[in-house]
Amino acid sequence: MWSKYAHIHQTIDSALQAYNTAFKLLPSLSWLGHTIASRHNALIHANFLACDGAAAAISMGDSEQALEWLEQGRSVVWGQFLQLRSPVDKLREVDIDHAESLSNIGLALEQGSHTENPMTNESDSKISSEHAIQKHRQLADKWDSIVKCVQKIPGFERFMLPKQFHELQQAASQCPVVVLNISKYRCVALIVKSTSDPPCQIHLDNLTYDTAKTLQMAFQKILSDQGIRNRRVDRHGELEFGTDSNANDAFRHILAELWKSVVEPVLTQLNPESDRFRICWCPTGPLMFLPIHAAGIYNADGSASVSLADIAISSYTPSLSALLNRHKWEDQTSTFKFLAVIQPNTPGATPLRGTIAELTYLQKHVPVSSLHVLKGEDATTAEVLTGMEKYSWVHLACHGVQDQSDPMQSSLLLHDGRLSLSRIIQKRIPHADFAFLSACQTATGDERRPEEAIHLAAGMLVAGYKGVTGTMWPIQDNDAPFVADQVYSRLLQNGRPSGVHPAAALHEAIHELRRRGGSDFTSWVPFIYMGV
Q1: Is residue 125 very low, low, confident or very high in pLDDT (cuts 50, 70, 90)?
Q2: Cβ atoms of residues 80 and 154 within 8 Å
Q3: Which residues contact residue 145 at a Cβ distance below 8 angstroms, ignoring those fewer than 6 apart?
Q4: Would the pLDDT of 440 be above 80?
Q5: Of the candidates 325, 440, 321, the residue with the CA atom closest to the CA atom of residue 77
Q6: What is the pTM of this model?
Q7: Most exposed among 259, 289, 355, 517, judged by the fewest C-beta atoms under 10 Å?
Q8: Which residue range forms the structural domain that includes residue 56?
Q9: How many Å apart are CA 350 and CA 240, to the nearest integer?
Q10: 120 phi and psi, to 5 degrees?
Q11: How many structural domains are present in the chain?
C-alpha cells in the first residue's frame, strides 16, 4: 500500500524506501520454518513486488538495483533451495563447526519442508506430528542464528545475503542474458551483456503490462480451443490437434506482437553478427507463459519473413542465480552416463507409441556400456530417482502433468504412479548434466505464482542439472522421436559428448523439424531449452 500510494503521488523516493523495506521483510514472509506449500501460498501476496520494485529503481536510472531486487523477489523458494545447498568450503577453512552445522541443518530443513516427506511416519500420533513441525521451526531458527554469527566473522559480512550485481552479472559468462521486466509502471528489457559491462536498459515503448496480459490470455485460448493444453486423442489413440485457420492467424498475430514489442528492440541493441548468436531470456509476469523464442513475422503458410529462430539460439532461465556456479559443458565428458526412461503404456494414461522410436534412436547414439534403460514396468518412481543419482544424462519419454491446484505436485507419470516435482527437488545430484524431458507440459508454470517458475524443467535445475530440454505444452507423438534423434546426433559423437551446446543442438533440430513439414506452430514452438 505504501509503494502504491507513493507511485500515485509520484514521490519516487518514498516508493524506493517502501520497496527496500518490503524486500527486507520478504524472508520472513517465506520463512524456512514453513513448508514449501506454505511459502508458495504466502508469496502470492508478493506477486508484483519484484517487478514493480525494479520498475521504480529503473525510473531512477539504477539498473543494478533493479536486477538485485528482481533476483530477491522472484524464484524465492528456488533461491532458498540453492542457498541451503550452497558450498561452505570457505567457511570450513575458518570455522569448521559452523560450516558442519549449516550443512547438516540445511539438509534437515530440506527434508522437513516437503509435505510429501514429513518428518514423521503416517502411523505417528498427532502429538508426534506437532513435535516434528516444532522441531523444523527450531532448526530454521538455528539456521538463522548461525548465519548471523558467521556474518560477524571478518570477510563473511555478506554470507548468505542476497547477491549483488557484480555477482549476478557472472550469469552472462557464456552469452548475454535479457531480463524482461513487465510491470504496470513500465516494461523494460535489462541486458546483462558480459561479466564486466554495466547492464543496458531498453524501454519497451510498445508494450504495457495490460497488452502482455492480453497476449497471454489470447495464447491460452488458442491452446485450449485447439485441444492442446490438455492432451486430446483421436479414436486411434493418436494426439489430435485442431487445424482451425483462425487459430493459426491468432498464433501469427501473437508471435508478431512479441517480435515488434519485445524481441526486435533487444536485437537492435545487441546487434548479432551471426546466425549462431546465443541469447538467454529471463522473462517475468505474463511473458513467462509466451514463446519468446519463436517471435517473428510469419506468412500464412508458416514460413517466416523474419524470426528470432532464424537469427539466434534462444534459451531460458528462471533467474540469474540459476546460471551461477555451474560448470561449462566442456567439463562433463568424463562423467557421461545415460539413463533412458521409456513409458509407452502408462497405466491409466493414453499410449505413447512414439517412445519406442525414441528408444531406438537413443540406442543408435548412446553405446550400450553407457546406457541404462528403464522401460514399462521397470520404470518405477523409486528406480527412476535412483537412476537419476547414478547417471549424468537422463531422457524421460513419458507423460508429464502440470498440477494447477498444487504446482509442486506437477509430475512425470511412471508405471507405479507420479514422480512429483516435490520429490525431484529433494534430490542432490552431484554429477547431473543434461535432462531431456520428452513429456508434456514440463515447462508450463503456475499462473497464480508466475514469478516462482514452478514447473518440472525448473525443478530439474534445482536438483542440479546444468540444462534441461522441456515443452510448453503437449507435443505430437511423431515429433518427439524426430527431435530426440536430431538433438542427440549433434550432442553425441562416437558415443561421447561432442561439445555441442544443448541449446544449439535443439535449435538445429527444430530447424530440421520445420524443414520436413513441421511448420505448424503447435509442432515446433513448444520445445525450449532452460539452463546454462
Answers
A1: low
A2: no
A3: none
A4: no
A5: 321
A6: 0.89
A7: 517
A8: 2-81+163-167
A9: 12
A10: -135, 160
A11: 4
